[in-house]
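Notebook, student rotation project (T.W.).
Task set for the rotation: take a protein with a known small-molecule partner, predict the structure of the complex, and write up what can be learned from the model alone. Partner molecule chosen: flavin-adenine dinucleotide. Sequence and SMILES entered below by T.W., checked by me.
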Amino acid sequence: MTKKTDPGTSVLAEDSAPPDRLADVLGTVRGLYDNVVAPREEALRHRLDDERQFLDSDGRLHPEIIAARREIMRAAGEAGVYSAHLPEHLGGGGYGREDMIYIEELVYSYGVGLNPALLSWSEGATPRLLFAHDHQRDEFTDPLVKGQKTSLHGVTESGAGSNLFDMKTRATRKGSDWVLNGSKAYITNYFDADVAQILAMTDEGGGRKAFTYFMFDAREAQKNGYRLGGLYQTMFGDGYTGEIHFDDLVLPESAILGEVGQGFDIAVMSFNYTRMRRAGMCSGWSKYLIEKSLERVTSRQVGGKPLGANQGIQWMIADMYVDWLQARSLSLEVARAIDTPGPWHRIPRPADEIRRICALKVSNDESFYRVADRALQVHGGAGVMRDTSINKLFQIARNLRIPGGTDEVQRTTIAESLGLRFDSSKTSGAATTTKKEG
Ligand SMILES: Cc1cc2nc3c(=O)[nH]c(=O)nc-3n(C[C@H](O)[C@H](O)[C@H](O)COP(=O)(O)OP(=O)(O)OC[C@H]3O[C@@H](n4cnc5c(N)ncnc54)[C@H](O)[C@@H]3O)c2cc1C
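Predicted structure of the complex:
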């Protein structure tokens, strides 16, 4: 990984100046980066810059990195940054989607070290907590919002990805309890989570009402019928994604998140959030890559002149800028439209908003991927080396087009909302009503 520059001094600073109203929170983020993140990155440089030391001997994320991330989460929680996206009544910062784009953009502009731990992501205080009950507040909501605990989100199964209705995990009533059976695949933070949020089918054939969320202590459940499965070796070597299994896991009624039958709506709301969050993440990382590429093509001499003196290279840099700017502009436009009627987590959501959220995700994921691809290209052989931030971000960019609903799921949902929704029993078309749509 290469040295970090303050994103405020970026050549793109004027193109992406945040509004004055966010000066305090962005100042807090900068302070957290300088005082909490940067020293830990320095101390763990040998692990962050070498994938063999990034993982432990079992291929899992190294415990020292996990510990550092947890320290950063807690510090960001105390400073009111970690859960800035959640409403104040949950202990969050109450920021809307537009403001969050600027906050996320700054956090990700620092690159690909420990900085992402400053903000809650899929292993933290997810918007599903909006459906937590009062009796779940002390054990789950408060510690997750403050960054004191981490969570996992179990929806996908080995046989059920893009289509929720393929799900095989079942929860059945037994007296006043529920019994959970099945398994989940591709689960982020699967072995280190304190809290599990699991979607299961509780009423097969019940349409949108067929699903229910359960939230419980993931460590305690391992004494019961909850089992960790295998670790997946992802292309970006996160050491953090794997399987979990439920064999007659008995859960009390109090484990239900929201209401019985509300799981589909909660899932869709949280997929929408995941999609909208791409905006600041992809913009921040694209800015970082543009900066690094500019540094490289001005310093690298090829044939007696800077690489960047060649028009072919200049056009690649220009295309990176155009990709970044168009995705960022679209994101801000969509975020303003979502914030205006507000709140961003409302259910149900009108079709035109769903369509724009899908457009935001597909635009960001694909633009960022093109930016990362060009960044690697202008770095030449150096970009192909695995232990570089350029290469790592290229791997991450390719991955982002899969989770949270794939590129195809976004396009199908956009097309359906424009009127191309057909009865799938009568057509062989891709447009069905059961995708991870949002
Ligand atoms: C690193 C990583 C982390 C993840 N973390 C989590 C997590 O924490 N929790 C969780 O629940 N899940 C997680 N996932 C799972 C992710 O959400 C799924 O991989 C994703 O939804 C796609 O499902 P699938 O892999 O089963 O692909 P499939 O559904 O098998 O789809 C395969 C391909 O076919 C396309 N396709 C499918 N149906 C259609 C159609 N009708 N028309 C056209 N194209 C179609 C898809 O777009 C995709 O490109 C994670 C995945 C990854 C890679």
